[in-house]
């Protein structure tokens, strides 16, 4: 049964890669900035694969509402892939790049496409649970972005909001096409275990590489090291807080919509609309008042 709370809206990102600063943190740690960059590296090819895995079985979906949600899911994921590809291209320099990891991700997605349709979709469902966990935490703790300019906030918060909007689509396609019998449940759990190890280790390895490549700014400064230590604690706290929701995935009766994110979604839909209007005014040459700049992202 489809339980999506509202229509899934496909929005264009207002991210402007030409305005990207290599070090886009201010008052935040280099660790957090590099962690988000590492996460971004997984999105272009990863989200293309998510769309591929759902499209492969779409003709077996009979629920009209779920068909409409699939269209929204595909549109949103396509926009995410495009925006993060632009970000990834703009952020990389000769001494700051992850091209080798990007190739590994490309190879990994190509290998997944050789697996059974059930296994491909189970992988997508697992990844979508991860992105929903991350999105929930980011939207619940927006102070993380206090040091980012509006351009970077727009990219990450726009993406996080839409991940929550379509969090259940791939899962519901999996349930409708493959069911929740013992083999399908076992595959869903097995895929999550495999992806958990690969995803966490991959992000950690990329973050470590970026910290080392940027060591002059990230590691050879006592104030930055203190910020890194602070945010290491923040990351550990995030992992502990999200652990119960991660483990819930292994329950036989799990459904993404068992957790009601609708109030959070509505809150950020409104906030994103305000921010996009401000950016559109800037692009048209209007100036933004200092008060608007200071309150745009103030969410309690």
Rg measurement, Å? 19 Å
What characteristic shape results from the CA principal axes? Answer: globular
Helix content: 55-70%
The succession of helices and strands, N to C, reads: HHHHHHHHHHHH
| Largest sheet properties | none
How far the N terminus sits from the C terminus, by CA atoms, comes to 34 Å
Tally of alpha and pi helices: 12
State the total count of DSSP E strands. 0
Mean pLDDT: 88
Strand content: under 5%
In CATH, what is the class?
Answer: Mainly Alpha
* CATH architecture tag: Up-down Bundle
**Low-confidence blocks of residues:** 1-5, 286-300
Count up the domains.
1
CATH fold call: Ferritin
Structural category is mainly alpha
What does this structure look like?
It is a single chain. Helix 3 crosses helix 7, helix 5 crosses helix 6 and helix 5 crosses helix 8. It contains 12 helices and no strands. The protein has one domain: Ferritin. 33% of the residues are buried. The chain has 300 residues and is an all-alpha fold.
Topology record:
Elements: H1 30-41, H2 43-55, H3 64-91, H4 99-112, H5 117-140, H6 150-165, H7 169-178, H8 182-213, H9 215-218, H10 222-248, H11 262-283, H12 290-295
